[in-house]
Amino acid sequence: MSEKILIVDDEYEMLQALDRLLTRKGYTVFTAESGEDACRAMEETVFDLVISDMAMEGLNGLELLKIVRSTDSTTPFIIITGVGTIESAVEAIQTGAFHYIAKPFKNHDIEILAQRAIEYGKLNRKLKDFSFGDENKDLPRMLIGASRSMHELMKHVEKISDSTASVLIMGETGTGKSFLAEKIHRNSVRRNKPFLTIDCATLTETLLESELFGHIKGAFTGAVHAKRGLLEEAQGGTIFLDEICEIKPATQVKLLRAIQDGLIKPVGGNKNIKIDVRFISASSRDLKKNISTGEFREELYYRLAVVPLTLPPLRERREDIPLLIDYFLDKFCKKYNKKISRINADVLEMLINATWKGNIRELANVVERSVLLSENEVITPDCLLNSTLMQRISLMEGGEKGRVLPLKQVVEEAEKRAIILAFKTTKNNRSEAARILGISRRALYDKIAAYDLYELEKEADTVDSRISHINLADF
To answer: What pTM was estimated for this model as a whole?
Structure first.
């Protein structure tokens, strides 16, 4: 998409000269012959750059800049003047101008200045709109798993990430759909472009449309200035529509057009805007059921679900729970400055066998609460403060109560199980086993040696025998 530039000057010759110059450079140029005309233009269109003459009849360039800055802190603004002074330059910069340039100037100078200003504006919007939390650094660890279902899912993700196909991620609440969406984006050619998320369940229909498509000034009560929508902000990148099942039929029609034609129209506006974004959506409800009840458009479903993916609930991938516990313990110990290195064996057994209706999110909450309540280096049953879970511990029969296992041992046992399952899946192919485990062959050899798993090389029967004797409850 070519960036939009608004040029404001009451001298017709200068206006036309700048229009021709910047249009040849590939920009979409709008012109205004007065400050008042510029204000009207900015009510309908969000510009990537404003270039304005300083001395104009009526509303001058500095006054126009002050009006813009009263509602918009990110759009770069360049002031041009033929009677430049130190004082006026200082005032322009203090008011929020990106640059101040005096006439006469070379065409090359204004071209370079416009390019720099637009790039500055993009960076400014990113810093304003995005936050990069610590969780992003650990994104791959949130999707770890020794289970076959997660290995199969990750194989599909590897194949489709670098395409432009729309992806629909289905799964229960708390299974990690937003993390999977971001992983797909990070693995794609769009990784250096924006990744924007909108939760469709948290906004009213009017606000959702405004967030997605933008709006012009006065489009609805509270729309005091034009606003660029997230579909336009995400140019070249990815938009993640969480809980897509919640959007209303009228918005579904507009979204379908955006996907089909690559065009959006701001709320209250009448001008189309071309977009280039990849759509990743997520739903905790079965959209096909919503289609049968008339709540969701069938044609929109097939546009969104070019690649359908399903995240399994935690109760169907119990072998991943020790690895996730390890991740969350490490995370929350750092957050709360705790040193916890061991976990009560009964607690671990209970966590592995719990129903986890809230999935990974619920597990994270339980571990965080346990870290907060722990008074020593061990997670014990009294740290859980959950009557249902405590009842399960009290009803446990057999085995030695009160056993405490080092956290390192828990992780090692989970790794052993993952390696054994990988060898069984690949019929003892080391290279393929290393690939699905996500480690190098050298690392796999080291782990085989460390865990004394040399018998894995011998025959598949040995593998089956080892698996039949593994019980996560014994970890």
So the answer is: 0.63
Q: Which residue has the higher pLDDT, 70 or 5?
A: 5
What confidence category does residue 270 fall into, taking pLDDT thresholds of 50, 70 and 90? confident
Domain CATH number, residue 449? 1.10.8.60
CA distances from 280 to 154, 162, 171, 192 (A): 16, 13, 14, 16
Q: Can you spell out the DSSP letters for 341-402?
A: -EEEHHHHHHHHHS--TTHHHHHHHHHHHHHHH-SSSEE-GGGS--HHHHHHHHT--SS-TT
Looking at the fold, whether 153 and 293 belong to one and the same domain comes out as yes
- Dihedral, 431, 436, 441, 445 alpha carbons, nearest 10: -100
CA atoms within 13 A on the CB side of 426: 20
Query: How far apart (Å, rounded) are the C-alpha atoms in residues 109 and 72?
Result: 26
Q: How many domains does the chain have?
A: 3
Category of 372 on φ-ψ map: left (φ > 0), alpha (ψ -120 to 50) or beta: alpha
Q: State residue 462's pLDDT score.
A: 42
Distance CA 55, CA 60 (A): 6
User: According to DSSP H, which parts of 27-147 are helical?
Assistant: 35-44, 61-71, 86-95, 107-129, 134-137, 139-142
Q: Which residue among 282, 311, 340 closes a domain? A: 311
